Amino acid sequence: MAPTLLKAITELGFETPTPVQAQVIPRLLQGERDMVALAQTGTGKTAAFGLPLLQLTDAASSVTQALVLCPTRELCLQIAKDLARFSKYTPGVRVVAVYGGAGIDTQMRALRRGVHIIVATPGRLNDLLRRGAAKLAGVRRVVLDEADEMLNMGFQEELETILKEVPEAARTLLFSATMPKSVAVIASKYMEKPEEIQVGQRNAGAERISHECYIVHARDRYATLKRLLDYYGTDIYAIVFCRTRIETQDVASQLMADGYNADTLHGELSQPQRDRVMQAFRDRKLQLLVATDVAARGLDVNDLTHVINYNLPDVANHYTHRSGRTGRAGKTGISIAIVHMHETYRLGIIERIIKQRFEHKEVPSARDVCQKQLATVLERIKQLPADDRRLEPFMPTINAALADLTREDMLRRLMLMEFGRTLDYYKNAPDLNARTQHRPSSQGAQSYERGDRYERSAPPSRAAHASERSERPERSPRREREAPESAQPPGEAVRLQINFGHRNGMTPAGLISLINRATPGPMLRLGRIKVMESVSVFEMYERDARALVPELNQREVDGRPVQVVPVSGFSHGGDTRPAHPPRTGPHAAHAPHAPHKHEPKTAQPEYAPRKHEHKAPRAAHPHE
Fold first, then answer.
1. Gap between the Cα atoms of 562 and 266, Å rounded
2. Does residue 261 sit in the same domain as residue 359?
3. What integer pLDDT is reported at residue 482 of this predicted model?
4. What phi and psi values does residue 391 have, to the nearest 5 degrees?
5. What is the rounded distance in angstroms from the CA atom of residue 125 to the CA atom of residue 130?
6. Out of 255, 345, 424, 555, which could bridge 260 as a Cys pair, Cβ 3.0 to 4.6 Å?
């Protein structure tokens, strides 16, 4: 390796290469074959491909010679920063990061000045290619970092567009924590007989991570989280994963109200807000970061002691990425799953993927928590220096005031002063463990992967979501106020398709939330929703759709432009009405979606909810 690179990485504290670096670096420097490297997050992948890219870059040439694609702006910035640190003593090498959420004009100017290595998110790079600002004709090496995550986020079309712009002779290097079918397809289509390097077991969780689960009732999720945090105390430094943006905000707000040092990270934060939260978390000014899967992708934070799954992820493979945030850089970590007793079969699915078993543990009792916190207080007192003389001038006053107290009385009062609030809180605390009679089953994997029904907790102030079992959704007070009794039905019903599905982390509730953010006025009525692999389909009235579609098509989700289009051919016999048409008449505002009593039966739409699909709520809530 070049002496300038060795000098830089020595200053950064590199001593011996990690297993992935030891296998990848020599092959990239000496070989010419495409490569697939399977390794978990936190194993040193950036240096594994970054150091060879820098050594093989011709700084005398002004053309772009290497391209690194990654799923999120956070990871994009981190890779570019690492490459800059590695090339500290390598003059002339220019690296530029391009990603959504930042000014595109600034990035275009940087590209026009000339750049050797582009680090990019697929959505923004596609935009730059359309504008003619990025030139890939001279690229000789392409790195797809966290390829499984890019495909999970729905970047397949963008990736294929980019790879078509790269010369056929370019060498492609694919790094991934897991090897799902979608990644294998990309590898077979755009790579020539790739050499495969595997660090650890394929698709397996890191061996340094232990996996624990706590089986509780859904209503006790937050109480369980709080009890675990109280049990671990100051020893915990963790990310808490939730399914939705709303849930991250709710959980983080409760934690902060209860005195925990926590904040939230989700896709609605601006880049400056996100940077401030992440910097505070890296500096350990925050002990807990509550995040969604999408927001946490690409985070580079070392020394996490725990990852806490407040809910299991919608897609089982995502658990690998969550748990991989801890146990990095040779350290150990704990991944905790708080599991509703009716979800236990999902644990078996995840166990097959990570090739490890969950340790089923009891939620600590009130006495356990108090005993642990008492031990912490006592240890803290014992660690105080005995030779500290700052109180010496005040000791006569202290001795006089406490002269009537026995040693035992003084200790009791001291402990109550330090520990009294905890004792009061846990005085009548219940047992939170749900007693199940069955071990998680490995059956049902297919339905889980495709997004079966799950339970979602929500603040009492919000209207409840209607499930397949519900007779009538809860009424929304805002709807009752705003919808006049004379309101007319807003035209025919239409079906719309949006370019986000399971692999992008889309859920029915997430789609409703996206619609709410695009329509700040009165709530819109929705029919049925079907979330598929790469797209989702939903029903609504034509008049509402005409107002909604232009608004949605101006938005981006995690750097990817939203595309909503009308669709046809999803029903039998040309039927375009929702399966349960909204009622008309003076009480339309409150009526659930149910057919009229004398309405003739119509053909069921092809995407009507089946066993493992969601039926959408009757109306989207404007403040969700």
1. 18
2. yes
3. 37
4. -85, -5
5. 9
6. 255
Task: Clarify whether residues 137 and 255 are in a common domain.
Answer: no
Same domain assignment for residues 214 and 169: no
448 in a structural domain = no
Helix 3-11 to helix 73-86 angle (10° resolution) is: 120
Q: 277: part of which helix (H) or strand (E)?
A: helix 271-282
How far CA 187 is from CA of 136, 182, 317, 532, 544, in Å, comes to 20, 9, 19, 23, 42
Residue 283 domain-assigned? yes
Give the gyration radius of the chain's Cα atoms. 28
CATH number for the domain harbouring residue 334:
3.40.50.300
> Domain range holding 381?
367-385+394-425
Give residue 403's pLDDT.
Answer: 87
Nearest 5°: phi and psi at 288? -130, 130
* DSSP-assigned letters across all residues of 49-99: HHHHHHHT--TT--S--EEEE-S-HHHHHHHHHHHHHHTTTSTT--EEEE-
| The pair of three-digit structure tokens given for residue 567, joined into one six-digit string | 């669709």
For position 359, what pLDDT does the model report?
92
pLDDT at 437: 42
DSSP three-state, residue 176: strand
Say which amino acid occupies 425: Y
Q: Which of 296, 465, 300, 298 minimizes the C-alpha distance to 309? A: 296
Residues 31 and 164 in one domain: yes
Whole-number pLDDT of residue 234: 81
Residue 176: strand pairing partners: 38
Contact between 148 and 183 under an 8 Å Cβ cutoff? The reply is yes
The number of angstroms, rounded, from the C-alpha of 584 to the middle of its chain's C-alpha atoms is 41
Encode 459-518 in three state secondary structure: CCCCCCCCCCCCCCCCCCHHHHHHCCCCCCCCCCEEEEEECCCHHHCCCHHHHHHHHHHH
Joined tokens for residue 188: 């077979």
Phi then psi for residue 40, to 5 deg, are -75, 160
**Segments of the chain scoring below 50 in pLDDT:** 203-205, 437-488, 569-624
Amino acid type, 367: R
Domain shared by 173 and 297, yes or no: no
3-state secondary structure 534-580: CCEEEEEEHHHHHHHHHHHCCCEECCEECCEEECCCCCHHHCCCCCC
pLDDT at 521: 63
pLDDT attached to residue 300: 65
- SS percent in the chain: helix, strand, coil, step 5: 40, 15, 45
The CB density around residue 524, as the number of other CB atoms within 10 Å, is 21
Do residues 179 and 293 share a domain?
no
CA dihedral 117, 293, 215, 349 (to 10 degrees): -60
Q: Are residues 215 and 128 in the same domain?
A: no
* Total number of domains constituting the chain: 4
Q: Which domain-ending residue is among 164, 198, 232?
A: 198
Establish if 594 belongs to a structural domain. no
Q: 432 in a domain, yes or no?
A: no
Please indicate, yes or no, whether residues 35 and 180 belong to a single structural domain of this protein.
yes
Positive or negative torsion for Cα 188, 191, 195, 197? negative
Looking up residue 465, the CATH number of its domain turns out to be: 3.30.70.330
Instruction: Return the pLDDT at 41.
Output: 66
Distance CA 209, CA 332 (A): 6
C-alpha span between 478 and 471 (Å, rounded): 21
Q: Which two tokens stand for residue 31?
A: 């070989």
Beta-ladder partners of 530: 537
Judge contact between 110 and 124, C-beta under 8 A. Answer: no
